[in-house]
């Protein structure tokens, strides 16, 4: 599929798709006229990339962990350096902390709404 359709299906802008390619995160095929050709496995990979970016993981780390997450191999279980694992753990911990803060905020809003509805009666 062409980039416009890949953008529509994945929910990622064409500009982002080109950026992912520039960063070496995806490698779309090419039509004979030079246009990019995105297959479903590339779209699936884009969805993983987008999720990792939204979690706060930088492109540099995504590039390292992505093969093991998307190719179905055991690449993610290879021996990796302790420093890299420490970085990934740090991002994971920050994500968990953000989730906890958001959960607290959601609970506070729920309590506010319950109280507001009670006073409206």
From TrEMBL:
According to the entry, every stretch annotated as the HTH merR-type domain falls at 1-68
Protein's organism: Streptomyces gilvosporeus
User: Which PANTHER family did the record assign?
Assistant: MERR FAMILY REGULATORY PROTEIN, REDOX-CYCLING DRUG-SENSING TRANSCRIPTIONAL ACTIVATOR SOXR
What GO MF terms are annotated?
DNA binding; DNA-binding transcription factor activity
Tell me the domain of life.
Bacteria
- The yes or no answer to whether the keyword Methyltransferase is present is no
SUPFAM superfamilies cross-referenced by the UniProt entry: Putative DNA-binding domain (SSF46955)
Q: Which keywords does UniProt give here?
A: DNA-binding
Q: Which positions carry the signal peptide feature in this UniProt record?
A: none
Answer yes or no on keyword Hydrolase: no
What protein am I looking at?
Answer: MerR family transcriptional regulator
């Amino acid at each position: 599929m062409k980039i416009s359709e890949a953008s529509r299906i994945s929910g990622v802008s064409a500009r982002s798709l080109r950026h992912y390619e520039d960063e070496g995160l995806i490698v779309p095929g090419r039509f004979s006229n030079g246009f990019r050709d995105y297959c479903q496995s590339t779209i699936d990979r884009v969805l993983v990339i987008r999720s990792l970016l939204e979690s706060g993981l930088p492109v540099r780390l995504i590039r390292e962990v992505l093969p093991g997450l998307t190719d179905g191999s055991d690449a993610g279980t290879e021996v990796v350096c302790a420093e890299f694992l420490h970085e990934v753990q740090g991002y994971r911990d920050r994500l968990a902390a953000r989730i906890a803060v958001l959960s607290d905020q959601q609970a506070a809003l729920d309590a506010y709404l319950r109280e507001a509805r009670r006073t409206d009666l």
